[in-house]
Structures are given as C-alpha cells and as structure tokens.
Amino acid sequence: MRRIDSAAIKAHADLRFRSEYDYALFEYFRSAKVFAFLDQSGVRLEGRVLDMGCGGGGMPLSFAEETASVVAIDLIDRFRDAGKRMAVLTNKPVRMSRHIIEGLGVGEHFFQIYGGNSFERKKPHPMGVEALMQEAGVGKSDTLMVGDSAVDVQTARNAGIPCCGLTYGFQPETLANPAPDLLFDRMEQLADWLLLPARA
C-alpha cells in the first residue's frame, strides 16, 4: 500500500485547479488516504470502484495500481430508485467534472452538472444552488446539500438550505466550523437517514 505523502498532497492541492492534469496528480497522491481509510475499515479491494466522493482522474489510476479490480456499493441506484433527483455542484472546471462523471458511467443519474466556471461566482456563493433548485422545481425545504468541506456548508448556509457533511473527504477538519446540520462517516448512513419512510 502506498504511504501517505502529506507534503505531496499539500503541494499538489495548491496547484490542482490549474489544469485537469494537475487535478489528476492531486487526486493520485490524495488517494493514499483513501486506501488507509479502507484498510482501517477492513474493506477488501476487489471488483469495480465507483468513486462517490470528489475523485479526479488520478483516483481511478491509483486504484488500478493497487489492485486489478475494486468494488464499492453503488448508492446512486438507491437514491434514484427512491425518486431523489441529484445534481453535481463543484468548484472544479465544468468540462473536467462532466468528463469524470461520464467516465464513471453515472452521468445519467444527475439532472445537471455544474462546475466552478458555470456561473459568475463559485461556491460558497449560493448562485449555483439557486439555479439547481429552480431547474428541479423544488424549494429550500426539499433540498439537501451534501459535501465534504466548510465551503459546502457555507454554500448551504448562504442558500438557506440544510447541509450534510461527510467526513471522508479531503478536509473533514473544516466541517467543525461552520458545522453542518448532519454529519456522517459513510455514504450508507446518509442513504439510510434520507430514505427513511418518513422522509422518502
């Protein structure tokens, strides 16, 4: 298993938005943290991986290096089958974001994919969230922002919607301030909470 090189992660994090290549390098070095988490959780890597977080091109590459095939639970189907409409709002460039999502074979599950250059202002400005709510035809009480950093939480606050934080992202320590309305360690926990009969 590759060791976590914190210096390399930090160095490439500072450059990650320069190009798709730079972001892929950042994700490649960051993926060592993913492997450490999986190992601590007792997960055995086999089958096919679907990166539900914010993985770039470097994440699939590093998984391919570690094992011939990797498996993960595809929770997108659970949300889709329950009638939940999903969208992506990221500060990554939109072309790269759509390429990643289409490459993972999950593009059809999202009614919209917006990137950092889709609007005049990036997150934490609420412009992107407001556009998505309008396109989906839903109000604030029927919208949930899911993210892994303080930027996502602040975006939700600025848009006046609830937010769920996931601790396995790049900056889980930033979720302490501002704190999200919900905080989960695993995507399955969010699915179980969101898809309770009382909320579904």
Give a verbal description of the structure.
With 200 residues, this protein is mainly α. The protein is 41% helix and 10% strand. The protein has 8 helices and 5 strands. It has a 3-stranded parallel sheet, with helices on both faces. Strands 1-2 form a two-stranded parallel sheet. Helix 5 (94-103) links the parallel strand 1 (86-89) and strand 2 (110-114). The longest helix has 21 residues, at 20-40.
Summarize the structure.
The chain is mostly helical and 200 residues long. The chain is 41% helix and 10% strand.
Task: Sum up the structure in keywords.
mainly alpha; 41% helix; 200 residues; 2 domains; 8 helices; globular; Rossmann fold; two-stranded parallel sheet; three-stranded parallel sheet; 5 strands
What order do the helices and strands come in, and which of them pair?
Layout: H1 6-13, H2 20-40, H3 58-66, H4 76-81, E1 86-89, H5 94-103, E2 110-114, H6 127-136, E3 145-147, H7 150-159, E4 163-166, E5 182-184, H8 187-194
Parallel strand pairs: 1-2, 3-4, 4-5
Helix and strand sequence: HHHHEHEHEHEEH
* Spatial shape: globular
Q: Mind summarizing the main beta sheet?
A: 3 strands, parallel
Number of strands: 5
Biggest β-sheet: strands ordered side by side in the sheet: 3-4-5
The overall number of domains is 2
> How far apart are the first and last residues' alpha carbons, in Å?
40 Å
Rg over CA atoms, rounded to whole Å, is: 17 Å
- Structural class, by secondary structure, is mainly alpha
